# Entry
Amino acid sequence: MKSLERLIALTIISIISTTLLSTHQASADESEGVISIPDKCETRFSHVLDGHSFLPTFTIPTPFANSSALIAIGFGYGDQSGVNLLGFTPRAEGQVKIIKGLALSFGVAGHMLTGSDGSSALEYGASAGYSYKLGALYELIRSEKDVFSVAVELEHPNSFAVSPLESARSFIKGLINNAASDFVSNTVVNQWRPNVRWAHAFSPPFGLQALFGLKINQRKPEFRESTSSTRLQIGAQFETDFKPWVGVPFGLTLSYLRGQVLGSTLDLPSNNTISLGLYLTSSAAFNVGLEYGIVHSGDLTTRLGGVVARMYFN
# Structure
């Protein structure tokens, strides 16, 4: 894990250096007419700062108080102690600008997780569930190059897990004790996410988004005591849009998110997520792209992939 964190730190440092050098070169080239500035119909969008149109992502939430809609479909593959798991998650979110600088958000999502082979399916079984969330975001500071905002979100996931091994044990216990046992477990979680968000435009081709906040889980499993955990979330996304400086309507994103456990009634590991995205940037009103990422959490390594599409209305 330490080697992974060193690699991630070196990667981010190199990207910062490259971004700053590129920004300096971009400023020099702009005076020569190399970089094109977006027209007025694109700069009217609140997620465009200093000519840079910020891109969506799975990892870092938006810092902009605008009206927008997002649809995402995610896939995952993980290996934990020899158990191979496959996951699928569709998600739909919306955000509505109420007044200048203030927006309310809402969303729904589903998930399904199962073993990817016979032994894994027998040992893990399957889980499925849904969640909904509500949130609010307020822009404290907005300038030509920066937006600094505060946000809070409440998410309420509800999941159901089925284990074939527990089913077999329940059947045997039922024969012995002449009583039926329930092998379907139900878990309800309330998740609070207060955070601060920042976006900075270095120049039309280059931008940065950052996140700093908490993720507080309150878990209520059936037939067991409630548990809770608190994580510190620190993340950043560096992005470049090739359209302003070479005329190619594509953008690249590199994101990193650290989930550091501050306290937990369970022995939970901290996690690290790093992802790379490729997005279509032909219009500031709509972005669609692909993302691939890796999540390390204790002895579990998960590989993620997905499609993200976001439409902006102001």
Notes: Residues 2-161+187-312 form a domain with the Porin fold (CATH 2.40.160.40).
